[in-house]
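Hey,
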Amino acid sequence: YHRICNPKNLFLRYARGRVRYFVSRQLITISMGVVLWFLVSPSLALFAMALVLLGDFVDCLYLHFVPRLLERGRSFRKLTVYSGITAGVQALTVVVGVWFSWDAQHENAEPLFAMGLLICATINGGMVLPYNRIAGVTRLTVYSLTPIAIMIGELLGRFDGHVHVHINLAGLGMLYVMMIWLQNFMVVNFHRT
C-alpha cells in the first residue's frame, strides 16, 4: 500500500488524471457558455469560455510534463508547488465564469446557476485533495473566497445586493459546510483505505 500510495505516485496519478479528463471537464465550460450566451451576450459567453479553457489548458500543459520532469530528477516539492500555482490560475479563470453568471442573475432572479458552477468546481477541486493537497487547497481557497468577493462587490453598491444579502449569506454558509465536510471526507477516507 505505502509503495503504491506514496506522495510521489499520488502526484503522478493526479497529473495524469487531470490531463486525461481535460476534454470531459470542458463539457461544463460549454454548458456555462451556452447559458451565458442566452442570459448575457454571445461575446461575453465566448470570452468566458475561452478564459476557462485557457486556464485549464495551462494547468494541464504543465501537468503533462510532470512525469518526465520527475524522471529527470526534478524536485518533487517544487513540482507540487508549481502545480499549486497552475491550479490557482485555473481556479481564477473558473471564478470569472462564476462571476459573469452571478452578474447575469440580477433582475429578480436567483443565483442558482452561478452557485451550481461554483459547487461543481468545489467538488472537483476537493476530489484531488488526497492526490495533490497543494493544488486542492489552492483551488478550494480560491473558490471559498469567490462568494465573499461577489458579496462585497454587491454591498459596495455595484449591484442592488441588499435585496439578496440574507439568502446569499445562508448559501455561503452552506457552501462552506459542504467544502469542509468534503475535504474531511476525502482526506480521512482516503487514508483509511
